[in-house]
Amino acid sequence: MRDVCAGYGPFRAIFNISLSVPEGGVVALLGANGAGKSTTARVITGLVPIQSGSVSFEGRDIVGVKAWRIARLGVMHAPEGRSVFSSLTVQENLTLDLASMQGRARVAEGLERAYELFPRLGERRSQRAGTLSGGEQRMLSLARVLVHPPRLLVVDELSLGLAPIIVEDLYATLRRVNEAGTALVVVEQYVGRALSLAQSVVVLQHGEVVYNGPAADLGDASERLLATHAHFGAG
């Protein structure tokens, strides 16, 4: 992203945002509620059009490209919340996505991969998704994306509302996926969680970048940012 402005109708949510994600790298996108993190994430994956600036992926201009086409290029979005079909079972949720993305011939292979990533889902494969715990539903929404790992995965507020032990499991899975080659943009409010994974950090405040650099250099700046944002937690 370079000098990107974007918003919703007449409302502008982000101003002149620039960031880049290296191949196989991890960028943490941090900030308080309303700082523009989710809008930035949606711009990356084509869900929100830009008003000015440029966005490219692997050298290709993707401004104006439909979100489903961007997904086929290898850019996937795991949005905040659970994003599952509550009336379908775990296996039916997975099968629906696998069949549409990879064809029915590869469904069995995909299911095996999903249950390998998240053994708890394998134990609950016949259970309706709406009856799963919040953490299990988040696992299911992630599994639908990670069965066939993308080139770039944008993960929005992974830890929102979940117990710490579940968050640890989810972040461990993200680490394994990254080590296998998938680049990540991790959108978080909680500094500690994101910094455990990221090499570089972009911090947003009121829709603008206030820090963009190595995670190791955030240092004292994180304390200043924490002091200015009551809801920007150390996690």
Short summary of the structure?
This protein has 235 residues and is of the alpha/beta class.
Describe, in plain words, how this protein is organized in 3D.
The protein is α/β, with parallel strands linked by helices and 235 residues long. The chain has a domain at 2-82 and 149-228: 3-Layer(aba) Sandwich (Rossmann fold), CATH 3.40.50. The chain is built from nine helices and eleven strands. It has helices at residues 37-44, 67-73, 90-102, 107-117, 119-123, 134-146, 164-179, 191-195, 219-228; strands spanning 2-8, 11-17, 26-31, 50-54, 56-57, 60-61, 75-78, 152-156, 183-188, 200-205, 208-214. The strands form three sheets. Strands 7-8-9-3-10-11 form a six-stranded mixed sheet, sandwiched between helices. Strands 2-1-4 form a three-stranded antiparallel sheet, covered by helices on one side. The protein has a two-stranded antiparallel ribbon with strand order 5-6. Strand 10 and strand 11 form a beta hairpin. Helix 3 packs across helix 4 and helix 6 runs parallel beside helix 7. The protein is globular, with a radius of gyration of 18 Å. It starts with a strand and ends in a 7-residue tail after the last helix. Mean pLDDT is 87; it is low at 227-235.
